[in-house]
Model the fold of this input.
Amino acid sequence: MRLGRRQKTDGGGRLRLFYASDIHGSDLLWRKFLGAAKFYDAEAAVMGGDLLGKAIIPIARRPDGTYTGEFLGAKRVVHEGQELDEDALYERLKRLAEQLEDPQRAIFNLHVPPYDSRLDQAPDLKPDLTPRYSGGQPVMKPVGSHAVRRLIEEVQPLLALHGHIHESKGETRIGRTLALNSGSEYNTGRLHGAVVTLGDDRVVSHQFVVG
Done:
């Protein structure tokens, strides 16, 4: 999709966008997101993923080694190992990136943040899924994607937008690329987002917002 840019009197073009992620089925946050572009005077609104709510679904292992469950009224069968590993994910993302006409002016909207980027810090969990603590504080560790980080390092897009790790809101630079995680507190009714203004070949400004 080609996004229009405002024309300045000096001939340069600018684009302002609003980004948010991880609303997890909240009608309130969806309505806020739909109105955010007008509120922040943005030309585009970008949703980073995890729109649907969370649910616990029973999954049964069948004698043939497959797994079955029912989701939204449809029976689904899954084979072990169907989830993409990091190498396969990188190859898929790389094929998409190779279709870009001008990669260094691209905006990457990739839900999972890059590995060890400070945008992917989450509690280190024990085998029983309870957090590890040290000195009374939860032990944090990077849980992002090696494939996403590798792609950003190689392609160096203008901007990379991420979510998924709700508690790891923040910004970082990977080479020339500005990478953002807008964070999420969907259960509080507050929409976390970022307003980003882009020039022809640079990020002019960015600001985290909550509303």
In short: The chain has a mean pLDDT of 91. The chain has three helices and 16 strands.
